[in-house]
Amino acid sequence: MAMSGGSDDGEPMMDMNTTPLIDVLLVLLIMFIITIPVATHSVDIDLPQPNPNPPPEDQIDPIKNKIVLTQADEILWNGDAINQEELVRNLNITKTITPEPELQFEPEPNASYDLSARVLNVIKASGVTKFGFVGNEKYRTLGTTGAAPAQ
User: Which of 97, 107, 35, 46 is nearest to 73 (CA)?
Assistant: First the structure.
């Protein structure tokens, strides 16, 4: 604590002693900092629970499986509608089959590009090695005649 030394000429000291004021302000500042609640940056998310039941045996073909994306944003596995969790489970099961069955991917002409990208990311993340696009021959003449041939 600093003290100002004055002259001994008998005049009153004109400077205000700010040391006690600064001490009180520092104590108040520390008290305010202590009382501020701790900010938590957590976001609570309810994650879906995995379905522990294995898919039916006839749903996974040991030779060839086909994924079709419809215009109604449905994922069809060998003609049966499935959701994304079932797709992941089916892909993991196909990797355990020896030899690994072929996986064919065929989106319908007006299927959602976003759904196609999401399904392709799931397939890529699963590590499937035998994968191919089918049905592209329908669009072979798209730019020349304006329409694909009927099949």
Answer: 107
